[in-house]
Amino acid sequence: MVSAKHIHQLREPGCWAILADKKDFEVGNSFIKRSLRRHEWQIIPGDPSITVVPPTTLPQRFANDTAVLKYLAEKAPSIPLPPFQCVFEDDGGVYHATGRVEGVSTNELSQEDKLVVTQELLQHVATLRSLRSDTPGVSGETLLCPPMRITSRAWHLNYCWRPRGRSDRDELITAIIDWEYGEFWPECAAMEGEQDDRERCREWLLAYCDKVEMLHLPNFDEKLPAPNGTCEGKQAH
């Protein structure tokens, strides 16, 4: 376990962001997300007895991201996406790599360009809403990672996007990233006068889905043969 201060001081070359559950890297032409290993779990400042335990669903969220990128590349080629490279597990960590896309923060855009980005985003959202599925989740994936608005009692914004600046094309948005929660679900939140469907979604999950306990990802030491010649394995807590 490590404090947030120390994990930032000791971060590897290419690591530009550390969250409570993963690290983000830019290495060469790749953008890489990696789940935290157990020794990287962070303790609460001021109370070292409390550890922030990352959700065990992160490997499946990376699988979701991969499935969505492949699905949209086929079904909605007009949506700009980073090129998928690979996803794999190593030494207790899961890696998800896509091509690195150059861009700038929206804060650096002129007001005119911000309006263009807004219109482009609305077009992409309309394209996403035109896609249809008979079942929730991601096409081809049997495991579901419900959005936070369904699994928690508070509403959160789960559709993540990130304009990455100009390219050789006419559009300003060069790639929309972070599709970990990009699944087929009802609208994100009930607007004024609309019916709140969170409870209905929860009831559907309880009625038609089984809770799956994600397996613990063993690190290198845990993969070494035990004295009896077998490898040790653990369940996620």
From TrEMBL:
Name of this chain's protein: Aminoglycoside phosphotransferase domain-containing protein
Organism whose genome encodes this protein: Lasiosphaeria ovina
Lineage, highest ranks first: Eukaryota, Fungi, Dikarya, Ascomycota, Pezizomycotina
